[in-house]
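Retro notes
What went well: the complex prediction finally ran end to end.
Inputs used:
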Amino acid sequence: MFIFFGAICVGGAINLLRQKHPIDSALSLVVVMGALAGLYLLLGAEFLAAIQVIVYAGAIMVLFVFVIMLLNAGAEEHTRGSRIALLFGVPALLVISVLTTWLALKSEPSAKAVQVGALYGSAQEIGRLLFNDFLLPFEITSVLILIAIMGAVVLARRES
Amino acid sequence: MVHVSYYLALSAILFSCGVLGFLIKRNIITIFMSIELMLNAVNLSFVAFASYWHALSGQVFVFFVMVVAAAEASVGLAIIIAVFRTRETLNPDRVNLLKL
């Protein structure tokens, strides 16, 4: 199951990089987020899996697709700078990715395997933690959301 | 029964894909999507560590990261709309008023 979802994740991420049109990239990002929700379920975080699907794949990606269609975004154009970035960026990132992967796989040979359902992150447990230990950050995020709403309204308003 | 380091490796690969997209893409919306991909990769390692250490607080952090990502997406897309209105382009190379 891990290999299945992981392959979907990596395939979606690579497809996001390959596509020229932003709407295709957005749809492959939705695929990545859905597969990540499956991985969260494998790790026992069922509340987070639901939130991932609702908030990320639902709300945020709908916002992205909405803006892409609103701005009528076409295929991207390549400039000199992007070719240089492509030429040096791809090998460098491949090296970094292989190195970090190798480090992660090698670092703790004695580490125990993650069991399915070993940690049960239900909505009840998360909510108890959120409203006891993390009450102050939770309240601060509500202020942050309020500021973000006001900022979005002010920024997107038409000057008159 | 999957080793926790496989999750970390997958997270590293996804994060690298996000950085790569951030560098090579020339569409401001796609660059924004690459940032979301990076945030998701970090979330995956948060959940993997939460499962590894048997600590639920890691999952609460993922919750906060999602809240911040939602706020960031709304404000960033509003900025993109404002930029498109004044510059009529989505290419960040053409938004170069502050460049020498």
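What we learned: The helical segments of chain A are 2-18, 22-42, 46-71, 80-107, 123-132, 135-156.
What to try next: split runs per interface for comparison.
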